[in-house]
Amino acid sequence: MFLPVLWVVGHAIVCAAPSEDVAANEACHARTAGYLSRLVSGQLRASAYFDCFRPWPHMQAFLDALSHMHPSALTSVPVGSTTTGLPIVAYHVHAATAGKKALYVQATQHAREWIAGSSAVYLVAALLDAPGAVPFDVIVVPVVNVDGYEATWTTSRRYQRKNARAVDLNRNWPNPHWDSQGNSTPVTSDAFPGSSALSETETSSLHTWLQVQAPGLAAVVDLHSYAGQVLFPCADGHDKAPLQTQQLAMAMAQAMGADYGSEQMLRGLPLVGTFRDYAHRQLQTLSFTVELAGDDFVVPAARIRSHGEEIVRATFRLAQGLLTPPSST
Ligand SMILES: [Zn+2]
């Protein structure tokens, strides 16, 4: 009679408590308080902001502060909304050279992949620290799954992957093979694709915005963790990206370092409904998924800058490859 009560109480405590990872990063927030007033133009990557992982309001405040420092180089625009009505925000880094197409970089479709979001913010800081280094506009959405990301901070669900309706956003994008495999996955699965393609507010609202942007996009990169791979289309295995795209993926992996390789399908497994395939087929742009290297979704904060630098090198290499005409041989 007594034991179930203890279990219920214990269970309630476990469910209510944020994770140890959250506690460690909140202690880091306290240690680094006031960093927004100590930002130095040209040395943004050195900011104590990057000493810790940050919840979405901190990320927004930091990026908005950078925008105030560099109003002509960085602007923000709402590009979608979440299940609970929160805005999905893009940060647009404007290149010094006008007229070039843009690179689109998004992260954190999967809520638990904090290192993907921190690397996207780091990329914005690096682009502002080195104006002109990338002769493309770069549009960065650091957190697609804002609801899920917030849940990883405020509940015990540090390993939550899906959105507020338990849908894997990176299986919810339109795909010609969607129906054949999508609906066989149960809702309890971490890869539940939803009831239909674009059934989720996050994907449908971003799709509306991306369709307008598509003619101006040179390439897209979708950031994830953890596998140490630069992946090229198609994840579903039905089509293969042109050789130029494959070679560019390999070059990006080489630029990122020894922990990285490149391939079409992660571990050879076909996946339907990914953003990578949607961008390749529907937006008709070069499309890559970057899986940061590692061995867990929980990453020590000491690795924020080193992984951020990997994404910076990959982006610089991508831009360089886009400017180099493909070989005719
Ligand atoms: Zn992921």
TrEMBL record:
Identify the residues that the record assigns to the Peptidase M14 domain, covering every copy.
48-322
* Signal peptide from the UniProt entry: 1-16
GO MF annotation terms: metallocarboxypeptidase activity; zinc ion binding
Give the Polar residues compositional bias ranges: 178-188
Which residue positions are annotated as catalytic?
E291
- Which stretches of sequence are listed as region Disordered? 170-198
InterPro entries assigned to the protein according to its UniProt record, in alphabetical order? CARBOXYPEPT_ZN_1, Peptidase_M14
Claim: Zinc is one of the keywords in the record? yes
**Which SMART domains does the annotation name?**
Zn_pept (SM00631)
Presence of keyword Zinc: yes
GO cellular component terms attached to this protein's record: extracellular space
Q: Which domain of life is it from?
A: Eukaryota
User: Which coenzymes or cofactors are required?
Assistant: Zn(2+)
Q: Which GO terms describe its biological process?
A: proteolysis
Which controlled-vocabulary keywords does the entry list? Answer: Carboxypeptidase, Hydrolase, Metal-binding, Metalloprotease, Protease, Signal, Zinc
Family statement drawn from the similarity comment of this UniProt entry: Belongs to the peptidase M14 family.
What is the protein's given name? Answer: Carboxypeptidase
Q: Native species of this protein?
A: Achlya hypogyna (Oomycete)
